[in-house]
Amino acid sequence: MEWNFATAEELGAALRAGEVTSAELIDEAIARIERDDKAINAICVRDFDRARTAARRADQARARGEDRPLLGIPMTVKESYNMTGLPTTWGMPQYRDYVPAEDAVQVARLKAAGAVVLGKTNVPLGLQDIQSFNKLYGTTNNPWDHERTPGGSSGGSAAALASGFGALSIGSDLAGSLRTPAHFCGIYAHKPTLGLVANRGMVAPAEPALPVDLDMAVVGPMARSPRDLMLLLDVMAGPDPLTLGKAYHVNLPPARHKRLGDFRVLVLEQHPFIPTGSAVRAGVNRVADALADAGARVERHSPLLPDLAEAATLYTRFQFSGSVARFPVETDEQLRTRAARLSADDQSLDAARLRGMVLSHRDWLEVNNRRELHRHGWRQLFTEFDAVVCPITPTPAFPHDHSRNPLARRIDIDGVEHPYFDQYVWAGLATMPGLPATAVPTGLSPDGLPVGVQLIGPMYEDRTPLRLAELLEQRIGGFQAPK
Fold first, then answer.
1. Is residue 78 among the annotated active site residues?
2. Active-site position among 80, 163, 177, 225
3. Based on the domain organization, do 251 and 150 belong to the same domain?
4. Of the residues 198, 205, 220, 457, which has the fewest C-beta atoms closer than 10 A?
5. With contact defined as beta carbons under 8 Å apart, do 468 and 228 qualify?
6. What is the 8-class DSSP label of residue 215?
7. What domain of life (predicted)?
8. Are residues 315 and 222 both part of a single domain?
9. Structural domain for 359, as ranges
10. 153 is catalytic
């Protein structure tokens, strides 16, 4: 049997039944990577020798009667995670020789659960793009169309999963970096509730791996099935043992419902700042129709929904405030001069980006107060609904665009060009208030490209969108291998 596209759950069952060994799974995965990854370039750092050793140890452990959640399962890890013995560069050539002294907390948890890591997956420079390319490791291509991006910044992980290079992967998400690659490559990903999953060791090269609380950014699981997402999230979830983990442990509530027909869902397909392309609208409506056909309550409007325009503006200011935090002083002065010239009436996303770049601490506190009002609005919304279905980006995967000035790039939406960074507004809808969101495939566009949507759930009720994803998979189908 060919195991490369089996789910982690299926592999675990086969390993327990003695139908296959971990050593056999690893050899098969390595053979596929060596055969196919030259065209995809998903695995930028290979770790095959240690993977084979870990697989043999997993088989020996199973022979002794051990059975851990991921024992013997082949997987990959995003390049931005620290892993002993392997470089962490974030795609920056000056750090090509930087090798961390210890594993990221999530890498340690994967190893403790018995996972076998095949290698690390490619990222954009500094994790700062919705594509995955850099001068150190080159360009990762979308397995469905090599002329298109797999997304970013967890694009290498998504491309690896779509190509059958391991059953699981882990990535990170601030601007849709888990969800967008999942959408572009036709796989599943879950952005956890902010703070649910410890992030120590997912840190820029040469910086200390400290247990800090990041603003908006999370780490999370990627897989080819929603049940695998749940399996991996259970391994990853929990506070850092150096801080909150000294006193607290995770006890996520169960999903709100077991049946698809019991869900109450708000469906969104239009945003005030950017249109939604026809292929993505079709994906959203495919999910809405499946929900309605199953008897779920489906609404298209609600007065409880926080204002989408203000949400996008707040998110953009937070996002760009963090992205320029280390700009040289002279650049900061230039930005402040430009921001001072903005009209008070200018509430565009371009203006929000510029204002975010020069956000003072006092201004940040004011913006954060507005965020708390949005969080309260979402709490009220989720008393009436169980999930929100909406786009991740306005289009399927777009052609590679490596032009040097990202602010000058454009994205084509049904023949009309729009500012490149405006496509982040849908990802920011869940990111800004810290809500969990599961990316699910909905089928293919007329051009044969994957189309995904996100299921946004209530804070700390991650099992609710994950359960909804599982039920939708049964209704409309899930992962398809690239043709």
1. yes
2. 177
3. yes
4. 205
5. no
6. S
7. Bacteria
8. no
9. 308-372
10. yes
